[in-house]
Amino acid sequence: MDEKEMTEAAISGVVSGLLDSMSSAFHGLGSEIKAFLKIGLRDYLAKQASRYSSGKTFLHRSAPIYLYDYYEPLYLVDPLGDIVGTQSVTGLFSSNRCITVIGDAGSGKSTLVKHLFLQTIKEHFAIPVLVELRYVNDFKGDLETYIRSTLFDGEKAANERLFERLLESGKFLFFLDGYDELGERSKHNIAIEIVTLATLYNTNHFVTTSRPYAGIEMLPQFVNFGVAAFTDDQVSSFVRKQIKEEELAGKILKSIEEEKAEEVRSFVSNPLLLSLYILTFRTNSTIPDKKHLFYRRVYDVLFSEHDTLSKLGYERERKTGLTQEQFQDVLERISFLAFFDGRFSFSRDYTYGLLKHVKAALGLAFENADLLDDLKTAIGIWTEDGGEFSFAHRSMQEYFGACFIKGLKDALKQEIYAKINEKLEQRVGLGNFLSLCAEMDTIAYHEFLMLPALQAVDRRVASARERPIAAASLLFESIILDDNLKIEGFIITRAAGVYITILNFDLTSMSNAMICLSHDRRFQQWVIETNSTTAVKFADLSEQKKQEADDILRKDTLAMREIDSFLSQVTHKIDETKQLLQNVDSNNRKFIDMI
User: How far are the Cα atoms of 271, 297, 382 from residue 300, in angstroms, in the given order?
Assistant: First the structure.
């Protein structure tokens, strides 16, 4: 039996099991609804299984490739630090009904979700429904309506009652992929809707995925799992899956094994960055010591691949006739505007709207359709899915956006970093983008973003120090008013019915982006109300509750130590940043004086 036949058999098993287990729930349902369960559901699962069982990657762009020909099984890290396998859906959900998978850019979250989707069918575990949340941004309706329209292929609301009965049966596993890709206007509402679904239909299972610090970490009922870095064995297995030529795979692995720098070796523990290294190995068999160099190399390889293929007799002209530098100019501006518009996939109309401004700014003339075709076909840096365009990986968009900022004059850099500083209170998921800015534009990044952001934190925390609740409101997530809430990974202080969740801040191990993101944003975006839990903004607490919290914090040595420790670390980081800028100025002055 081949893979397709096995999948079809598994789908039949899921549908038959559902029909058997829900026979009593069919009472009163018409024949049309029963037909959907027997035929429509089977068609839905077959269509989705076909879609997610193959795809293109950076290393396989010419044609879709079967998922398990390139997928390296990931491991997760639970809140206690234990390693959890993902081969079995049943095993993954043996102890938890709702989980959040949190991983950095390129850690393999979306590919993991595709694997879990297919595995859910194979194990007859549930009806899997995968929602790519970026597509909800422009949907006119709530999350439940979007899911229903996906499952019923856009059919009328006559299926609402059936959908409700299916939800009540607890037969679903919902994959909500890419929370960090939601627009800022959508995030708050979607978070509430996720909690509502998980609460009202509490016999179903849920998975959300996100990059770190997108705010999804504080969803009640959801247990947070991190994506574990690749081990040496996984790196070896991954390389050999991508490269079938034994000699070439051996050379790649040898070059990785011989690399001594721990910082550089850590790059290859990320599936995306390891893929970029494999892609560029033929042209340069050394590992760059900076992340942005990976992206530069992959762009060079993607662009030059046309010339390599042409020598083999395969002609694929770039219709626009743009040079590599001109393509980069265009990509930088599209990436910059779309990134700060919260867009990671673009409709044709949206893209054409951006290109109108980009072409005018650069003085270029080309057909918009030709550019899209070049980016998809001749270069392969963009993909198209359901009429939506996006970069082959979102991190490439962040790279080009950071390149745009790097090329600005200092006066404009100061202006844009000031705007970014303002957006830190509204935008999340900026960590990878800001880390690229820190690498590529180190001086301006520290002078115009890091230092002002740190000084703002220092002023606000120091001025609030006399009233602990005010200081806590700048540092901590929220106050939780619920006797039954269990939050993994946090210190919980309780007295007089007030819970304060306290994060263990450690600026020495946190990214530069998180230092900036710490000021006056993290807790304020959440006001989640469900049947079981209410997370309240500090600003919305009654004066009596504020006084109770003040009294608790003053008596809590641990809480006060956390506040003082955070303030001390901020002060140290300010001094460190000032010293960095001073050393750069001093060293540059020496060279200038030599002329």
Answer: 20, 5, 15
d(CA 169, CA 203): 7
Q: How far apart are CA 413 and CA 421, in angstroms?
A: 12
DSSP 437-451: HHHHSHHHHIIIIIH
Q: Rounded CA gap, 185 and 435, in Å?
A: 25
In order, the DSSP letters of 270-339 are SHHHHHHHHHHTTT--S--SSHHHHHHHHHHHHHHHHHHHHHTT-----TT---HHHHHHHHHHHHHHHH
The candidate with the shortest Cα–Cα distance to 501, out of 491, 510, 509, is 491
- Angle 557-593/451-464 helices, nearest 10 degrees? 150
Q: Which amino acid is at 259?
A: E
Which residue positions in the chain have pLDDT lower than 70? 1-7, 9, 13-37, 153-159, 184-185, 213, 259-267, 286-287, 305-317, 424-429, 457, 460-466, 468-541, 545, 548-549, 552-553, 555-563, 565-566
Residue with tokens 């393999």: 108
| Domains along the sequence of the chain with CATH | 3-227 (3.40.50.300), 424-595 (no CATH)
Q: Which helix (H) or strand (E) holds 356?
A: helix 348-362
In 44-170, the DSSP E strands lie at 54-55, 65-66, 75-77, 83-85, 98-102, 127-132
The whole-model pTM stands at 0.66
Angstrom distance (rounded) from CA 60 to CA 329: 26
Backbone angles phi, psi at 386, to 5 degrees: 60, 35
Q: How does DSSP assign 418-487, residue by residue?
A: HHHHHHTTT----HHHHHHHHHHSHHHHIIIIIHHHHHHHHHHHHHHTTSHHHHHHHHS--EE--TT---
Tokens of 212: 């770190």
Which residues, 6+ apart, have CB-to-CB distance to 234 below 8 Å?
72, 73
Contact (Cβ atoms closer than 8 angstroms) between residue 322 and residue 366? yes
